[in-house]
Amino acid sequence: MTRARLLVIDDDPGLAEVIELLFTREGYATERAATVKAGLARVRAADFDLVITDLRLPDGTGLDAIGAIRTLRPELPVIMITSYSSMESAIAALRAGAVDYIIKPFDNDELLHAVERALKERFIARENAILKRNLKSAYRPWPIIGDSPGLRRVLELVRKSAPSDAAVLISGESGTGKELVAAALHYASPRAERPFVVANCGALSRDALERELFGQARGTAALEPTEGLIREAEGGTLFLDEVSELPAALQVKLLRLLEEKLIDVRFIAATHRDLAAAMERGEFRRDLYYRLSVISIQLPPVRERGPDRQLLARHFAERYARKLGKRVTGFDAEFSAFVDNYPWPGNVRELENMIERAVILADSETLTGRDLAEVAPALPMVRASVPLLGGARPLAIEEYIREVIERFQDSHTETELARMLGIGRKALWMRRRQWGLRRSRKSVSR
Ligand SMILES: Nc1ncnc2c1ncn2[C@@H]1O[C@H](COP(=O)(O)OP(=O)(O)OP(=O)(O)O)[C@@H](O)[C@H]1O
Ligand SMILES: [Mg+2]
Questions:
Q1: Residue 178: CB within 6 Å of ligand 1?
Q2: pLDDT (tens digit, 9 = 90+) per residue, 255-277?
Q3: Do the beta carbons of residue 27 and residue 49 sit within 8 Å?
């Protein structure tokens, strides 16, 4: 059996040994290097699945290692270990392209979880079914936070449909928690002890996807899959992510499988596109659509979840404070207002990332409006086009920019405002002129 291969770059032999022991026990193959140079030599020579690097190394920093690895092997995920005293380096690591960071001292579960998550994402991209098999049993979902009417309806549907074998279609914008809900459904079902297998229909070419799902080469007519993800999910649940991307030929194949009930698998599918509309346009088979959407769960975007934004923000602040060994007791009015007013086009994922960055950088136990300017690099996302379900109005970016200017101009400098908006100072000045938004007297004097 192929095992996932980890490289640990750390000059502290004690720590490297602890990590090595931990992962060997979990069935990984691990190697060590004590310097950036030695680490890069190993990356060049061997085929690793993941690198864990310390920040401070005798001949450079973990950031140097990340940069070099990004050039050598852009696909190779890197996790950086950093210490509490150099918290900014956690953000620097993420910016340099690390997939995650771990703060010293860390507990084993934390590191394991980070590694599993990073590998899972990599294997979905690399269609490595063998390694994926080793990971799925370790998949532990987080709790679902939310008390808004929309989320309550979702949780109610999860509770009601978990015991049955009915196929569930989950739709929602990017980052709304589709995979989390799918995992919750599985783990609340009688199939919980059996595998939860994730298949991303959007990540692979048609042929690779056919092999991945059915374990068969293109056009094989055999009815029952003998290997592949469908077979692996036997007795459990198969999560078909981005199901709208399923090529027509595979839609037919899947439909036959469902109709003839050849294998005992519960199907949960997810889409960020409007699948009903795709069906109307003839891009998705009608019969398959009805088979997959016996129960339909719609995840509302975060901007429609009212009180959940504060609940989510607090939940993530607590989680990341715990991860970082910090204390965060609350938010000031400005920070809270931002959480409530920002449109969160990247939904829960974006909110989570923003809070994580704010907690890393926070100097006090209260997260403040001033911390916002620091975490703002996430904001240029607003300008990305967001696929919206149900014909909802696209985000009014101008409105948002206006809102930020009006809300924060008294408390922030022009540079900070520009940074919050992800635009240059000159662009900010142009917008003001264009829209006749005068600087308030207070901000002019700063
Ligand atoms: N209600 C929630 N409570 C707590 N965490 C949540 C909630 N919804 C989402 N998350 C977290 O937000 C992140 C994104 O969620 P998830 O990956 O399930 O979204 P998704 O809809 O599958 O996104 P995409 O369309 O981009 O694949 C995850 O870290 C998830 O744990
Ligand atoms: Mg997803």
A1: yes
A2: 999 988 888 999 999 999 999 99
A3: no
